[in-house]
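User: My instructor asked us to take a sequence, write out its structure as tokens, and then describe one feature of it. I'm not sure where to start. Here is the sequence I was given:
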Amino acid sequence: MYRMLRAKKNRYGSTNEIGVFEMKESGIKEVSNPSSFFINERPADVSGSIITPILEGSRVLLVELQALVTDAAFSSPQRLSKGVNHKRLSLLLAVLEKRLGLNFKDKDVNMNITGGINVEEPGLDLAIAAAVISSYRNIAINNKSAVIGEIGLAGEVRAVGQIKKRVKELKKLGFKHFVIPAGNLKSLSFDQEIKVDGVKNIAEFIKIILKNK
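Assistant: Let's start with the prediction itself. The structure tokens for your sequence are:
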């Protein structure tokens, strides 16, 4: 029903733009709000699920990350991912083990971005960590919460670009609580309709995101 169109070559602009279209009886029509398409079937009160705003060119899209952490079925634990770079997932699991003391050595970790989209930007890191820990501890994250941020090897949470646009898209679709890098807080003005928490490292992040479940 849905099709995504990405330009491979554009003489007059960026090739990072995407278009989302829907097949109808009258032909292909543009999906004016693709964010709702990617998250409209998100289950409620289920562990391992989180929403994050990503940048595709100049457009902000909300995507749902799902993680499933289970006991390893074989002697060598599996790391399976769809839509997320496999090496990035393994790197972040190593950071969570080192900085938070979690143990994935006997766990299979499956990661998926719903809707079939592939995301490369580092701002996805915090959402990957949130989904993995939520599934690992079997604790659901509040459905009105969203996260964004890059994670360094020391466990620090680094600032991302276009934070105002990301928060605006989240607010438009009804999200009320955002966890962002502390370095991005100064870029946002106070808004009494939403709650924004800034974090410096993943230890702070985990306390906040699970507290607001």
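For the description part of your assignment, you could build on this observation: The two ends are 33 Å apart (CA to CA). Try explaining in your own words what that tells you about the chain.
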